[in-house]
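Components:
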Amino acid sequence: MTDLSDALQEPWSDLRLQREAVGLGMWFFLASEVLFFAALFCSYAVYRSFNAEAFRIAAAHTKLIYGSINTALLLTSSLTMTIALRAATARLQRMTLFFLGLTVLLGLAFLVTKGLEYYGDIEEHLIPGSTFPLKPAATEIFWALYWVMTGIHAIHLTAGIGVVIVVMLLFGREIVPVQGSTMEGVAIYWHFVDTVWIFLYPLIYLGGRT
Amino acid sequence: MSEMTLPFAPAEHVGASSYLDEGHTVLSWLLTTDHKRIAILYALSITIFFFIGGVAIGLVRLELISPTGWFMTSDEYNRAFTIHGIIMVWFFLVPSIPATMGNFILPLMIGAPDVAFPRLNLLSWYLYVIGAGFTVYVLLTGGVDTGWTFYPPFSSNYSNSSVVAAAAGVFVVGFSSIATGVNFLATTHLLRAPGMTWFRLPLFAWSMYVVSLVMVLATPVLAMSLLLISAERLFGLPIFDARVGGDPVLFQHIFWFYSHPAVYIMILPAMGVVSEVLPCFARRRVFGYAFMVYALLMIGIVGFMVWGHHMFVAGQSPFANLVFSFLSFIVAVPSAIKVFNWTATLYRGQIGFEAPMLYALGFIGLFTIGGLTGLFLASVPIDIATTDSYFVVAHFHTIMVGGTVSAFMAGIHYWWPKVTGRMYHEFAAQFAAITMFLGFNLTFIPQFIMGWLGMPRRYHMYPDVFQIWHVLSSGGAAVLAVAYLLPLGYLTWSLIGGDRAGDNPWQATGLEWQTSSPPPKQNFLHPPRVTSAPYQYHELGRAREEGEPTSVSGQGGTS
Amino acid sequence: MTNGDRSAHRLWRAPAWAWVVLMLLFAINLGSAFIPLGNGNVILNLFVAAVMVVVLAIFLMDLQNAQTLVRVVAVAGLFWVVLMFSLVFSDYLSRS
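Structure:
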């Protein structure tokens, strides 16, 4: 069992206070991430409100099955991440690592699915430019936003997966004890990435289905 | 409220080390997690970029002496003023007071041993350096010519310059801001010393708190705006492209959603510094402390609701123009309250004219003028006539240079003894301050005049009738350049051979003055405990008049 | 904190229920997309998405037990998003 003092970072002298600080800091960072995506969603909202028909036509070409599988994967990964956090708080190192591992696998599955989806989109020339197949012109805006929104989300998810892998190594090698403040921050971030997708999914995939 | 002498010997006398003695290698600086050393790393970096940005505008002002230009092409001219704007806004003004004085002084001022996340603090400096690296790359590849505002479709489709690199540099340095903001917010919430309640915090600490809120909430929106034009430029993704139904004004909405609060990021810390310097050198408590706090909060919050005043002539609807104009008038109110309260602080004071005070007094005058001209611009009809004229240029420089840079200099001089343990040469500093004030006015009053007369901004060539004003303005710029170089001289001299400073050379209140100059690495030898409100200058004065022997306190003591 | 109580089921039971609710809401969103409701589709979808995020925040992110401050921060982020949307749309909706 690792010495609890390993978990303490300067300038904190109390682990409970340190955990509170990391949680608070992560929520402040999350507020900035919310604003980051808000600008993007606001752009989407503006364009959709003026090009409803074009967005409907454009959205009908998104790959609903891939998007839905990804939604299920991410929601499940939030579950596994929550269990990992609770296990960590209960000092159950092996259970924590198991559920963190599951979270990573679900995240990777998301990325693989997304990759296959992107491949399909590219095959259909759904990239704005000279070979773009849809009309009217505003469908290009939907698809430009599609690539940016899903791309940035995927980058955030990839970063999250990377962080979880590093954290698993730190816990596994007992460099950092599981009940420290690290899990707090990681879990909050992961749930945020899921939250973005929860909003993104209907806006990208559920239009134009009737 | 209590008057008490420090019951323990100040660190200097017992030979405790200063933070400067904890390691002398380059690595001990580059890998430090000490907020004081990180503050100095930032100070050196922003000073370098201040001078690079200054050289850029020096070239511009030199060129503008002639109405037809004389050594620059129009393309070079565009690149020069653009890089001036990008560097000054993001690599000097935004980090200036928060990353240097916020980093060094905030933990001391609240009685904390460091910031909440020291390693994040170091990371924030490295993010600044990486962003700066992109900017240096931009300089070496011929610059960027879009103006610091990066408007599409020029930036996304037509510019032949290093737009994406410049955008990347700003994107990265933005995360430095966000990291600093997150750190300061957590620090203020969780690391205040016992007895330091929210309404006992000095106004500088409050200003750091509010500016951190603004940095955290506004900067990511800038990041997204730059990401979108980069995506449009690099991958041809039409986000703002009118040819497929996109709207370039949408970029302006997203960009200015950040860039207006950004100007509050630049002024709030300056207000915080002035609120520290003024009471000290007037020997009076701040008038209306609570209203000063509420004013900071109101500026920070309402500042997010006025960005459309940059877009009155861009195609925004008249209704939106009305809304943004109204809110812009509202946001002036808390700033005015602060100016009234600073003035009232001086009333019946014993005014000292040391350099920090000269800069602070200059701030009040110039900020007032700059702010009043802002009211002109908040009025839609006047703005329609003066948009993109030198009137606007003079307005924002009066606030940013006359305001923020003056306050920055005030803070540098005020806290210099604390940071370095040395005093600077007072007369040289006073001379520089006055030179700066005169040079500033010679530079920018002609700009107000010619703007009103119709001289457009960002113009390389202009009608002869404006030449006299440009020549005066450029002359003023030369005086300003001298005034900015002088501190480099006498402050360096102070480091080498200046008098050693005591713990509290200004007889100021505040926890940062209750520890040695320079402070030890852990800031306080004994954790301080706060028992009174800030700015206990009235009590000090009363005690001195009654002949009571006392050392300066008001806040602080042992635990 | 289950300090000393190592019965694993206490760790996953509540989150698992939250997951079931989330999957149900997801199914509602997906299913309703095939019912022609005009503008109602996107409104319903966003409403359901908002409910999902609230469930996530309360039951998986433990927001109901969090410090007041954390809840303030969460709400503040939302407030600023609302501000952005309203003022931007005040321009777009009033353009002729």
